[in-house]
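Revision sheet: structure tokens.
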Amino acid sequence: MADFNKAFEVLMKLEWSNCEDALHKNEGEEGYTFMGIYQKSHPDSILWEILGNYKFIEDIEGEPNEEQLKRLSKLMCNNTNAMQEVKKIYRSEYWNRAKLYDVQSQKIAEEIFVFGVNAGIERAIRLAQEIVGVKADGIVGPKTLAALNSYNDKLFDVVFDAGEAEYYESLVRAKEKLKIFEDGWLNRAKAV
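Predicted:
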């Protein structure tokens, strides 16, 4: 069966190769985002308590400047409890939701997981379901698992990558300002 820890490592290499950028505050958003975990969506996560403790230790009042934010980001990345929390959230909201623990091919599970983190897990599941020829409802049940487990993983990889590329290209067509992300998205699709 597919291994979450291996898939998480793939995600880490693609998303956060530089730990200085793992913590940020996006314009127009309330709260912080750490390794893709948005504070407003996960207000009770221990991540924000850990961040608050580091802000206190670093004597940062109010919003940190760019240098302080990078320092806080590194501290968070090196905190075992913070990283366990990140893994717990990704396992629960993406891996387990898609029942990837029952997928035999590590490659297929990683494709669905990584795309799901970036574009939404239901979208990733529906794309996988379209490829393997089952009802594309975004819900993984016995038929979807059977189809995924009997599908050629090399063929799945090629077709799934094409589906990812089509999705990203459609985003750019709909919003030209997203063009700056297109190459990164396409490279990411090919990397898994």
